[in-house]
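Go through this chain for my students:
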Amino acid sequence: MDPIIIIGTGLAGYSVAREFRKHDKDTPVILITRDDGASYYKPDISEAYAKDKTSEELVQKSAEEMAEMLGATVKTHEQVEAIDREQRQIRLVGGETLTYGRLVLAWGAEPITLNLSGDAVEAVHKVNNLMDYRAFRDSLPDKARVAVLGAGLIGCEFANDLIGAGHKVSVADPAEWPLQQLLPKEAGNAVRKELAHGGVEWHLGQAAVGVHRADNGDLRVELDNKDSIRADVVLSAVGLRVGVKLAEKAGLAVDRGIVVDRTLRTSDPHVFALGDCAEVDGHWRPYVAPLMQCARTLGKTLAGGKDDTPGQVKYPTLPIIIKTHLCPVIVCPPVNKHGEWQVEGHGTAIEARFVDKSGKLLGFALTGEATSKRRDYLKEAPALME
């Protein structure tokens, strides 16, 4: 019996393996990963200081423990070089070839790399996994000056966490307000004000263009308005981009991610994808809740049902909880962009409704004390995919 091969041991890879094992205890499963295969909850990384956890303490199980729990083989520190769909094989760097019955792509997405000038670009950290976080945390002296490039979800969460640990944080972003891609201006400004009260220095409307090393060893982040930020450590958190080259080279359909239908099949019926690398029925949602919906659906599909009919993934109303604890945020992005924000509230308690021309709620954003109204909004908000 040819195995199910899963490329990736992040939350997507391990979750679909767990779900599959609930229905099938016997089919061989092989997971392949570039790193050490440790299981951890990735969202914990951006609030590890608040939870007083080191990178080692974030690990829930080792690769060996996961292999035993799943009755699977976990091949660590391996890189997939090519996918041969005709032969149903993958080739690893080094030449080893593995045959699959079905293949699951769960390799996530990679941080976007800014085009920066300067002699200290190599010193810029990007954190997208536990190894990245370990290197970043080890680089931080006590009461460090940290320049965060990016005022999106990850940048704001790290800023909140780092100031709570006593570091001095500066955040630069060409956007007018924090979380601009998710929140209307009033809600974004509520986050800006509260994090500023906590100690964050904002450089909004300003893009980083270079990172240089000063004579005294400081890092100097050059901004496009000729201002600069002095820092001990620089963290780039400007978003994610799916690496699609391997899938594209194999002839799979790609767009913003690897294109899959609601059964999570790619353009090849024997190849599936989920998580941050997958675009599900036109939706790319690199968040935990959609990923878990996909893992449950795909686990059943891979195991097969009584009639062997694949399941169809559904996305109910899936709010995003942003861990800016100084100003909590819950946002449910609009199901489409044909509407407008209606905002009320004052201070940090902002309620924002995104409605269409008829007044129907398409999405919402809540900040501060207004997050207590989450349940009321969830009852009214539409599902993304029913």
